[in-house]
Design a protein that fits this description.
The structure is a homodimer. Chain A is of the alpha+beta class. Chain A folds into 2 domains: about 5-165 and about 305, Ribosomal Protein S5, domain 2 (2-Layer Sandwich), CATH 3.30.230; about 170-300, Alpha-Beta Plaits, CATH 3.30.70.890. In chain A, about 35% of the residues lie in helices and about 25% in strands. In chain A, the strands form 2 sheets. In chain A, strands 1, 2, 3, 4, 5, 6 and 12 form a 7-stranded mixed β-sheet that branches. In chain A, strands 9-10-7-11 form a 4-stranded antiparallel β-sheet, with helices on one face. In chain A, strand 5 and strand 6 form a beta hairpin. In chain A, helix 1 packs parallel to helix 2 (about 95-110), helix 1 (about 60-75) packs across helix 3 (about 120-135) and helix 2 (about 95-110) packs across helix 3. The longest helix of chain A has 20 residues, at about 195-215. Chain A is globular. The two termini of chain A are about 15 Å apart. Chains A and B meet through strand 5, strand 6, strand 8, helix 6 and helix 7 of A and strand 5, strand 6, strand 8, helix 6 and helix 7 of B. Strand 8 of chain A pairs antiparallel with strand 8 (about 195) of chain B.
Chain lengths: ~300, ~300
Amino acid sequence: MGVSVFAPASVANLAVGYDTLGLCLDGPGDEVYAEFCDTPGITIASIEGDGGKLPLIPAKNTAGRAAQAVLEAVGNVRTGVSLKIHKKMPFGSGMGSSSASAVAGAMAVNELLDRPFSKYELLKFTAMGEQVADGAWHLDNVAPSLLGGIVLVRDGLTLDVQSIPVPDGLRVCVVHPDIEILTKDSRAILSDSVLLGDVIKQQSNLGGLIIGLYNNDLELISRSFKDHIIEPQRSKLIPHFYELQSEAFDLGALGCSISGAGPSVFAFCPNADVAENCGVAISSIWAKHGITCQVHQSGINPVGAKVI
Amino acid sequence: MGVSVFAPASVANLAVGYDTLGLCLDGPGDEVYAEFCDTPGITIASIEGDGGKLPLIPAKNTAGRAAQAVLEAVGNVRTGVSLKIHKKMPFGSGMGSSSASAVAGAMAVNELLDRPFSKYELLKFTAMGEQVADGAWHLDNVAPSLLGGIVLVRDGLTLDVQSIPVPDGLRVCVVHPDIEILTKDSRAILSDSVLLGDVIKQQSNLGGLIIGLYNNDLELISRSFKDHIIEPQRSKLIPHFYELQSEAFDLGALGCSISGAGPSVFAFCPNADVAENCGVAISSIWAKHGITCQVHQSGINPVGAKVI
């Protein structure tokens, strides 16, 4: 018998923590089923839900590579594990799709092998999987997807990640428009340099957001949730961004910004009603301009990836 | 009978929070004595300890201007208050000397008038006083000197300042070398732009520092206490900076960087022994190179300015 693991989507950056902050959603997410097989190493038996776009070669697939990394670390070269990957969320959405697959792949193998590694120890392998997607070593999606909650990546190379407490009742609404933005384009649009004055503002807001989360101070969270660096550049790629952001604020969202590299946007909300209203409003604005989208309502998932 | 107020020195920036973070020292600091007099408005009767350098005209003196602002806000135009300012710390040291005077001036008048304002409400007036010194609106010295503790200035214009909890037992050693650096030169040396990669590292460290302070995690504080933006530029103005920083780390300091705009340096220490050793080591290195200095050991003052 095999093991199935679900790893959830995540929202990276959170407006003021570019490449640093991320939060874990309840869903959507990806599932990976792992079972022993006779062929040594990792085999990807099937991928569903990707429209045939993802590679079956394990070393080129984020779930496959993460799974390989776990198996290699255990060191039993004759063990064979077969994976069935079920993509249940869109890729290129800015919701950490490649990360969810990497996390599910690593954790499914770890569970199948009777947990040689703790969840935190899996972080390294999930990052190795994620690296397949764009060549970079980023933890701001894999860390929240794996560990849950809101996570600060203090230093990716040394796997120094820190959980930040989350006030009760917060809800997130993520809206994914049916337009495509490649992560590399979304990165390429960013200037290499930032004005010192904007750095000061961003730092003050990052500090304010963290203090607000610790102190359960929703007003402070709201005042702090303003991106002076990334959003002014990336919003150009997202149609009608400022119109829908303004609407979300009017409806009571504590913050509204771009999820990861986009094109999804998210509203950070004090409760389910506000999140619901933001979802309706944002999708209506896009619909009015002929853009279809999917709305995802979620709490901040405190658990992260889990066996199902 | 009049009122005497002592306002302590402060350390701004704390390596990773340029123009944002500051902490309050036990001492040194400035004293202002306020008493009623017949001449309406603020009169500066005397200034001691400044070597005759500070102006006696209230509007041009940080203590005088802050005191004026309090009096104006109360609105009784016939009230006259005379101030005696006792500078008990060097100016141009990077320890918030002009701020200490502004804080002491504002609070002394407020006490004399039977506290029309809360301590927090005085913040605005202290910033107006501080503004006399260099024309800018900065709270990262006045806020900690007034309120105590470690303070994050989320937004200076709206007086949005946040206190961060401080682990017990931390000690700070500030060493002031007898060299002069003008704040305007120390600001002019800074580039207007920052590499995005350095912004990410600084943000991660600022987040790590705040989380470390909340969680009482001295290891995390230490890992986070590294300035990727300001120190690499300003250290040029401070002789032998990297030699003494390296020595402080070897002795167990959690962090060591430039205090405010310099030339003072500070070591952020887990206990009094380490702070003591850092003071001896740093002053010895400077002495070896012919630079005399004063060493100040301090806890992190939780109270800030106070009546004496």
